[in-house]
Amino acid sequence: MKNLEFDIIIDLRSKKDFTEDMLFYSQKNLEVINLDFFEAPKEVDKLDKTKSYLVVCDTGMFSDIIAKVMQSKGFKNVKSLNGGIKNLKKLLNEKE
């Protein structure tokens, strides 16, 4: 994904993994929400449908599922990132 533009990242990883990457997210000045994968289908209803979202997980499998759920709920600008968090870090570091 060359065009990496989004308002908010939805990180579906465990609270522990998410917390370990908070420094990375803050250094990149990113707005990030940590949602539990199993709660995410209900939790996304609280999000602003006018914003753009990038959904990440460990590998890209869970994020793809939640991105599709969001699209089915009327979110227009949602993308899942293949390769998960490692790919996100790589792409954001290349962007600098």
Round the mean pLDDT to the nearest integer and report it. Answer: 93
Please identify which CATH superfamily we are dealing with. Answer: Rhodanese-like domain
Under the CATH scheme, the architecture is 3-Layer(aba) Sandwich
Parts with pLDDT < 50 across at least 5 consecutive residues: none
Could you give the order of the helices and strands? Answer: EHHEHEHEH
Q: Determine the number of helices (DSSP H or I, runs of at least 4 residues).
A: 5
How many discrete domains? 1
Structural class computed from helices and strand pairing: alpha/beta
**What fold name stands as the CATH topology?**
Oxidized Rhodanese, domain 1
Could you give a short account of the major beta sheet?
Answer: 4 strands, parallel
Q: Give the number of DSSP strands.
A: 4
CATH class: Alpha Beta
Distance between the termini: 15 Å
The level of helicity is: 40-55%
Rg from alpha-carbon coordinates: 12 Å
Morphology = globular
Biggest sheet: strands side by side, in what order? 2-1-3-4
Describe the structure.
The chain is of the alpha/beta class. It has a single domain, classed as Rhodanese-like domain (Oxidized Rhodanese, domain 1, 3-Layer(aba) Sandwich), CATH 3.40.250. The protein is built from five helices and four strands, in the order E-H-H-E-H-E-H-E-H. Strands 2-1-3-4 form a four-stranded parallel beta sheet. Strand 3, helix 4 and strand 4 form a beta-alpha-beta unit. The chain is globular and about 35 Å long. It starts with 7 loop residues before the first strand and ends with a helix. The mean pLDDT is 93.
